[in-house]
Amino acid sequence: MYLENQNPNKVALISLPWGSLEQPSLALGYLKAVLNKEHIICDAFHFSRKFYEALLPYCKPENLATFIYRFTGHSPSLKVEWIFSRLAFGRDEDQYAQNYLKQDQMDLMSLSIFELREIFEQISIEISQMDWSSYKYIGFSCTFDQTMASFAVARLIKERYPNVIIMLGGECFNADCSQEYVKKIDWIDWIFVGEAEKSLPSVIHAHQKKQPFIGQLGIVTKNFDFCGLSTLTAAEFDNLPCPDFDDYYDKYPTQSCIWELSRGCWYGDKNLCTFCGMVPPLRFKSRKNVYSSLRTLKEKYNLKYMSFADLITPKGVVDSVFSTTADLDLIFNLTARVDIVSQSEIYKLKTLANGGGKSVYFGIESLHPECLKLMRKGQLVINCISMLKWCKFYEIKVDWALLFGIPYEKQEYYYEMLDLVPKLTHLFPPSSQPISFVRDSPYHKELKHLRVLPAYGYLYPINLDLTKIAEYFENTDPQISLEKIQNYQVIHKLTSFIEYWCNINEQSFLQFEGLTIIDGRNPTNIKKIQINQVEKTLLDLCSIPQKKHQITVKFDQQAIDRLCKSGVLLELEHRYLTLVEPEKEIEYDVPQNEEKDNSKMDLTGNKSNVLTHALPLITSQLSVGISQ
Prior knowledge:
alpha/beta
């Protein structure tokens, strides 16, 4: 029976934990904008912050973001889902608590994980008791462990408003799990698979006209099986309206926002990393759209900070985008892959910094060449280290992770990394974490001994096929398990050193003072290393990676060996790199008569005119770009 005041053309969109603390949901912003464009009334409810603010009485405000970051990191316990599993499915297994829950997960909080669950359950109940009577459709965006929270709140709302259509969508849903959920969870009506900016408006229009969903891509219902993924074309992606975040900023004027330059992964299109789930095809925004959208968002919401949700920053984006963004006065955080192998790449970092790029996440993943090969990363360790060094020079903060537990890794790899990392403490440190085995990744398809994480069995209803709904798996290969045990001690030493590295990093340095190198990589034991002019020339030439043979033919081997032994010159992968922080940037003779064409944006990897004609003033053949 219809509710009297229910609007048949009204949608509520909801985002729950574990979304961002300081930013709105990008999915809700896009969906509200496209629905409004189609004259479908929509309200967006960004609820994550409501949950997080309830924790403020139990921690210092400055520690809240750190707690959320640590707590939501992937764990075999799936504790972020456990928080809501009792409310969603009535699961409250004592055995789960005994096997998985530890108080040290709450080290920044003055409450237990059980008390946190009580708080979040109460807030979920309060949300369900809001007046939802005017909405015909209520949708939940599920990305980054938001699925269980969405199931819980959706169940409570459906109990009070049985005629409402409950919809879910987001990166968490593929064809298999969506069909399993819809068929076996009573209160779930529709699940959108793929990019709902395209499918949601057409589905709602069809439903309002009582038309069948025959041929409709990207949706699973009780009576309609999945018939294909909903994917935006490149033109459709570029023409998406600017996200509508009014509902968020009216309540939380945080000055921090999220947007995207692209979808997909230019590297994954060629060769997917072993641990990465399937990614959509690469598409990107036009230069004109990027600049106008960033300006619109900044002015409309009084923004100061902008993060990008891209899986990886497309090649060419630094040249095409950040050469134009300096006047926006925004501070950018992005995910990027920039191999510093030539002066032109260093120029890109300068462009990024000048354009407001102050924080990046780089997919380095390991400091051992063989580990990178095992993960099919397609990059050199020495290039990654060079990038860390030059990012520090341009004051671009780098976040990156060092993964361990890689199938077929060897103990010797970690001992070699243990020898390397003390030389790098003046550069940005990584976090450390075990590698994950996720659905649709090459690992998921190729490893024969993967099984669903046992924690799923404690959290989800027993009638669900866990092999269809699980996102995370564990490797039970006996050989891999044996290697993991053998490597445990050295990996523990490495992760312990990384923790030390994080603690001392702000005090660490490695700098030139004329022909003296001040080595403060161990702040408690600062050393001075004297060099001569020839050695200084050698170190200057190796400010970016140089092939070994190009250096050995020009310089005395004893001098090279001395610099390597002192830890200021790194030999790795048949290349040399100076570890000392640069004194000044590499200069360019950029032609002044070239006019930039701001109407075009090349994100395909082709160099812009500026880079094509940039002529390094260092003319030695030793400083040419090194290709992989």
